[in-house]
């Protein structure tokens, strides 16, 4: 149902319904699907390859039974990637090279270096502030909005911007008033 306001809820409720049917049979996979599913991405990990393989195969079974195919499985462990391929799970296509020449994939839109297992969050927008203009509430909000961090890696820093915005509202400053020192 496209264009219907309740569509996201219906998708979520449908997935939860199918997860609940398998909670006893596949406890680890249902827990992972229940807590690690973000829109259409599952972000999870495991202690070892055998555990990762079992959870992923069980999750694949659960979702196949709901006529929803899990695809683009990805890991920083090449043995697991080969095992998934051997087991018939659809793995992520060949990793692309980003502009720094690093093999990466994206998780929730965040570049993930699959070789060295780290995420890269682009904060260049913050560095491109025009310091020749006065800093205003509008500029602070624009700066806060330029940071894409759905997982919350930068929360210790972005919370400071949000607290500053709250303080600016409490001071009843207009959008384009220069901020006090």
Automatic annotation (TrEMBL):
Keywords: Nucleotidyltransferase, RNA-directed DNA polymerase, Transferase. GO terms for molecular function: RNA-directed DNA polymerase activity. Pfam families: Peptidase_A17. InterPro entries: Retrotrans_Pao. The keyword Cell inner membrane does not apply. It comes from the Eukaryota. This is Reverse transcriptase domain-containing protein. It comes from Nephila pilipes (Giant wood spider).
């Amino acid at each position: 149902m496209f264009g219907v306001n309740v569509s996201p809820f219906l998708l979520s409720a449908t997935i939860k319904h199918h997860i609940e049917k398998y909670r006893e049979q596949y406890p680890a996979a249902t827990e992972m699907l229940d807590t690690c599913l973000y829109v259409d991405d599952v972000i999870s990990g495991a202690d070892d390859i055998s555990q990762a393989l079992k959870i992923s195969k069980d999750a694949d079974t659960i979702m196949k039974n709901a006529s929803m195919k899990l695809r683009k499985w990805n890991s920083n462990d090449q043995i697991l990637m080969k095992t998934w391929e051997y087991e018939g799970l659809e793995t992520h296509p060949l990793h692309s090279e980003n502009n720094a020449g690093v093999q990466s994939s994206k998780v929730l839109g965040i570049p993930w270096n699959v070789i060295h297992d780290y995420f890269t969050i682009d904060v260049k927008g913050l560095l491109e502030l025009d310091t020749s203009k006065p800093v205003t509430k509008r500029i602070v909000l624009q700066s806060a909005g330029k940071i894409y961090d759905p997982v919350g890696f930068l929360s210790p820093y972005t919370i400071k911007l949000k607290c500053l915005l709250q303080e600016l509202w409490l001071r009843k400053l207009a959008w384009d008033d220069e901020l006090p020192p």
